[in-house]
Amino acid sequence: MPKKILHGIVVSDKENKTIKVLVERKFQHPLFKKVVKSRKRYSAHDENNKFKSGDKVSIIECKPYSKSKKFEVVGDKK
Which of 31, 50, 60, 65 could make an S-S bridge to 69, C-beta 3.0–4.6 Å? Predict the structure, then answer.
């Protein structure tokens, strides 16, 4: 099964080697047919503490680094 790749914006870089990425997606509600926005924050592994708040990044699913950290940063989103 392919690994998930998500695109989002860094909202926090306070933790060491960890960033929090806000991923926003849009989908159509199955019953009401209205387009709904959904937001979720993911903790991602950033080995070199390279990314700062406000950066656009891509994250990919990986082995668990901790209880909540199951993604790692692939690179900048162009």
Answer: 65
